[in-house]
Amino acid sequence: MTASATDIIETPADTRKSGQFLYKASVVFLCAWVIVPLYFLLINTLSSPEAVNAFPKSFIPEFDLGSLAFFANFAGILTALKNSVLVAALTMVMSIAIGAPAGYALSRFEFPGKGLFRLLILLTRAFPLPLLALPLAVMFIRTGPDDTAFGLALVHTTLAIPFAVLITFSLFSGIPIELEEAAWTLGCTRFTAFTKVVFPLILPGITASAIFAFVISWNEVFAAAVLTIENRTLTAFLLQNLDTSPLHLKFAGGFILIVPALIFIFAVRKYLFAMWGIANR
Amino acid sequence: MAEIQIKNVAKRFGSYQALHDINLTIADQEFMVLLGASGCGKSTLLRIIAGLETATTGEVWIGGRRVDHLSPKDRGIAMVFQNYAVFPHLTVFENIGFGLRMQKLPDAEVRRRVERTAGLMHIDQLLKRYSGELSGGQRQRVAVARALAMEPDVILMDEPLSNLDALLRLEMRAELKGVLAESNTTAIYVTHDQVEAMSLADRISVMHEGRIVQAATPVEVYRNPAERFVAGFIGNPPMNFLPANRLEGGRWQVAGQTYNGPATANGAVEFAIRPEDITPSDSGLPAKVRLVEPLGAHLLVTCDVDGSMFRAILESDLNVKAGDMLALAPQTDRIRWFDPQTSLAVA
Amino acid sequence: MNPRFLPYLLILPVTLFLCLFFLYPFLLVAKQAFSTASGLSLENFREVTGYWKFPISMKNTLLLAAIVVPIQLALALLMATMVNRMQKGRDLILYIWTIPLGISDLAAGIIWLAIFEQSGFLNSMMNGLGVVDRPVNFLSYQHPMIVFVAIMLAEIWRATAIMLVILVAGIGLIPKEYYEAAEVFGASPWKRFLRITLPMLRPSLQTALVLRVILAFEIFAVVQALGGTLFPVLMGETYAYQFELLNGGAAAAMALIILGISIAFTLIIMRALRVPKGATI
To answer: Which residues in chain A are classed under CATH 1.10.3720.10?
Structure first.
């Protein structure tokens, strides 16, 4: 891989053509590298359970909904799916509601303790957070939200908050303060200037970071497995049944896990890079 | 009635003193320009008047009402920003009507006022556009229209023309002057461009290092600078300075020449003269020409007089070149004198 | 209200939230790890490190990180530079390459399971080519190397995207003038990459590496899906202590060990890639 990069870049003028070819071939190869495994999963998902367990495999899907039907009828799986959506939605709402004000404060004010606060946020991002699910399980049993969507959403929010703060920080920083000041001189309070000017401008970006929080929660496995017993999320359910469940259930489940992710990445693709660009610094 | 009074206003940012004890009264319907180099505190003062910044000490009064504890929306002001600050998510119409909507005026009144001010600023064709579809000059017009639509007692402008290119700036300057003269509002205008200040202002406040060094009409500031700083800042090129030694009877010796000067002053003063108030003659300040720059109508001649740099604007048909010796005679009624200790003008 | 308190009011929710769900559980984990029936001791650490699986799972985790992360870094850099010189199709290629960003480690494990399992696509392909006549059970104790390679490929496939996003964002922030200046001074494309892109990208490289290395030590679900107990890793052992052995103290001790390694590597990366003060863009 790296060797071919050197080749492309160092190609002298007379061999430019072969360099171009190598470059295009690499692009195609890397696209295939991402897409082909997904395609294999798609084949398995759109095949009957018998075909999934048969050998050798066909490389084109037979468009049979048998596996998906089996998945839908498997005991507990729809509840798990519902739980996943619920936890992810709660995480999305909480992380933005709690994180966005802090992102605003970081972008608009200089205040003593700002450096310390940023450090706390960055520290959170650098920790293997799912590990903290262990004591939280004990804490939740004592205080109530054990084995609930809300309890798990609290942990996922902790996971999503550093991203929410840093992303909203960079979004707010992209709105010139003059716009707010202009609104103040035109009869707005701090609050109405926010709702009438800043909020409409930032809405697409906020949506993107909310979706990002949703995906973080949707995909999280470890804390979900630790914190839920009866109310499994889809990831926790699949993990728990990995040894025992038939192949076609695993593949259909994997496919269902991936679909929202594909849509979400497509929805936020415009913001992905802007979000990281500034959050880095 | 919207007289503005600034009483003992000072501003610190941490250990940095941005404004020292500012006192200034701006009359109703006066056009006041705050002029100074960047970092002199002129924008800070404007923002304190607007309420976007709070003064560390001091009071701001607008129309006989103390406003320094009020938020910007309650001060009866409107403001035009350097970067225009046209809201990107609203049409030109909604931008101009933004403040009126905030006052919950009826639709018909909003429409009437938006259309009137848009007509005034010649942007009535653009009312349905968004700011992304406008040029810099058009955005500037929207920003001014938005402020005027408020029919404010006071309009504040923070370098509103500095992001425009030179020709457009000239055009907007003239237009702005006309529109504001008709609107009967008090205006405060911040700029670092002295030509802009001269052309627009009823009075100019020249600011330097957080102080107002002179507040007077443009002609007064130009002809009779109150401080050496003003003399060296205003005018392009600014005034020439030469050291003067006292002779008896109010006479002073400057580079070997003798001139009438202040009678009651200490041992030494500075002689000052504008480059355009100099003519070549048979007797005058002995000047060795260093550089000749033709400016079209005139020649800008940079010389060396008694070891100091000295510039003169002379008729363009004069035949001079570097290395020539000239005798330069100042127009005596235009000579000004400054005290080197206090930097103040002495008469 | 005094505007000086506004920023503190805005960061209050995040601070409270992180204290309750980040700092507090962290202290609980620490306490639990160091306490046994007989009081404060290192007994839990002695127990987990003395267990026969510990050295293996430690070796596996570190080895996996040591191989996967550099490959991902090289791949992400290559992809980022390729994207950077792309004119048409850039958005589409970027979308395809960032798809795995939204895919969870569990789903990625399942996708690669579809390829490596006994009736999977690799066997089908090899059968079709006549290399094998009966499907081979790759993911078994007889083929530890293949298990390792499968996990490695799944990790590279899944988690290169996050580095790519961070690096593309970072490259986007480097002003074009530097490249033009270097070109005028006669630097070849390869030299420009070495002398401009890489040094200027340091903050992004830092973020990308820290994030990836921490996540690499937390590897769990991919391994569970592909190797199960064949390939013990630290996080998997932690999970086993908590749920199969019901030994909370030992799980907490494992958690602290993972944390310790993460912090150590974070510090090393930050130090190695630190940006001199005043040398930022």
So the answer is: 75-279
Cα of B289 vs its chain's centroid, Å = 32
pLDDT in tens, B179-194: 888 888 999 999 999 9
Q: Is C171 on the interface with A (CB under 8 A)?
A: no
How many CB atoms are closer than 10 A to CB B3?
17
Average pLDDT, chain C: 83
Which residue ranges make up each domain of chain B? 4-231, 239-346
Query: C-chain residues within 8 Å CB-CB of A258?
Result: 102-103, 107, 111
> Taking CB atoms and an 8 Å limit, are C127 and A56 in contact across chains?
yes
CATH architecture type of domain B239-346: Beta Barrel (2.40)
Question: Which fold, B4-231?
Answer: Rossmann fold (3.40.50)
Convert the pLDDT of each residue in B306-327 to its tens digit: 899 999 999 988 889 899 999 9
Q: Looking at the partner chain, which of B73, B88, B143 has a beta carbon nearest the beta carbon of A188?
A: B73
DSSP C219: -
Does the beta carbon of B302 lie under 8 angstroms from any beta carbon of chain A? Answer: no
Banded model confidence at residue B95, pLDDT cuts 50, 70, 90: very high
Determine whether the interchain pair C114/A239 forms a contact, defined as Cβ–Cβ distance below 8 Å. no
Domain A75-279 has CATH 1.10.3720.10: yes
The answer to whether residue C13 is domain-embedded is no
Say what the alpha-carbon torsion angle A225, A230, A231, A234 is, to the nearest 10 degrees. Answer: 50
CA pair distance A5, C248, nearest whole angstrom: 49
Residue C113 lies in a domain: yes
Residue A160 distance to chain C (closest CA, Å): 11
Q: C66-89 burial, b if ≥16 CB within 10 A, otherwise e?
A: ebbbebbbebbbbbbbbbeeeeee
Rounded-to-integer distance, Cα C58 and Cα C219, Å: 12
Q: Out of B51, B102, B156, name the one closest to residue A187 (CB).
A: B102
Pick from B319-323, C160-164, C208-212: least confident: C208-212
Query: Looking at residue C49, which CATH number applies to its domain?
Result: 1.10.3720.10
